[in-house]
Design goal:
This protein is an alpha/beta fold. The protein has helices spanning about 10-20, 40-45, 75-85, 105-115, 125-135, 160-170, 180-185, 215-225, 245-255, 265-270; strands spanning about 10, 25-30, 55, 90-95, 120-125, 160, 175-180, 195, 200, 235, 260, 280. It is built from 10 helices and 12 strands. Helix 4 (about 105-115) crosses helix 9.
Length: about 280
């Protein structure tokens, strides 16, 4: 029987596996750091977790004004994964050195692998920031794996589109959670939000001291207090499909069924939706 994959793994667990050389051959640690302001691959080359490979989770997609953070084409993603040395049966452990102690990008990478049909995916709790905070080893030795046989299979389970959302919002049939910062959701700086959505900022679900996730019990309590029913499906969104992926991952951790992401987010919504489906909260 194949052992169950834990969606969230601790830095200490990974460090002990690395030091004991106990990571199975089919486990691949991927640095998925990305930034619109700097070259994160160069940063990876100077400092990363030993054995980790760099994975370009964002750079291979075609962006537009409506989809500034679009998904790559399925064949492009498959080729990128193969070039990183990932095989179709590998267990992938994701981390990054990006915003929100890695959950901003690791969540996006987790969701992307799920959309392309790969189930064995975990996130390193706290990312590279937590790893270094613990004093665990880093290196500038770049790992190179032989080309893998990763096979991408697109699945609609984790993704929602504009047409889906219009019907859902009009009928109030599925819960919608907005993962943007509160000032983006409401107030004088806000352009509004999707009618009926609840604001659950991704950053609010993390421990501020070390960037790890709060306990599942604490997160469930916060979600319940915000009116989220974890026994029913939830669609997450942000501006363009980034922090919403992290929130989707956390809802998955909490056992929420049928979690998915509206990729176009509020960027697409405010461009296309009728005014009556955009609410302003002061």
């Amino acid at each position: 029987m194949t052992p169950e994959i834990e969606p969230l793994v601790s830095c200490r667990w990974l460090k002990e596996k690395l030091l004991d050389k106990a990571l199975e051959e089919n486990v691949v640690v991927c640095d998925v750091s990305w930034s619109s302001q700097k070259d994160m691959e160069n940063q990876y080359k100077s400092c990363h977790i030993p054995g980790a490979v760099f994975f370009k989770i964002m750079d291979e997609a075609e962006f537009s004004e409506i989809f500034p953070r679009n998904l790559p084409a399925i064949d492009t993603f498959e080729q990128t994964a193969r070039e990183a040395g990932i095989n179709k049966d590998d267990h992938i452990i994701l981390y990054s050195d990006s915003d929100m102690n890695g959950f901003f990008m690791s969540g996006r990478a987790w969701w992307t692998f799920k959309v392309f049909g790969h189930e064995k995916v975990s996130i390193l709790d706290g990312g590279l920031q937590k790893w270094k905070m613990e004093g665990f080893p880093v290196t500038d030795d770049v790992s190179k794996r032989k080309s893998g046989n990763f096979a991408a299979n697109f699945t609609n389970e984790y993704i929602r589109h504009y047409a889906d959302l219009v019907d859902i919002v009009e009928t109030n049939s599925i819960q919608i959670c907005d993962s943007r910062h509160q000032h983006k959701y409401s107030g004088p700086e806000s352009s509004g939000n999707i009618k009926g959505s609840r604001n659950i900022p991704l950053s609010s679900l993390m421990n501020q001291e070390d960037g790890t996730l709060k306990s599942i019990t604490s997160i469930k309590n916060e979600l319940s207090s915000a009116g989220v029913d974890l026994s029913k499906p939830v669609i997450t969104h942000c501006n363009s499909g980034m922090s919403s992926c992290g929130l989707c991952f956390i809802l998955h951790l909490c056992g929420c069924p049928g979690t998915s992401v509206f990729l176009g987010g509020f960027t697409e919504w405010k461009d296309k939706a009728p005014k009556e489906l955009i609410q302003k909260v002061s």
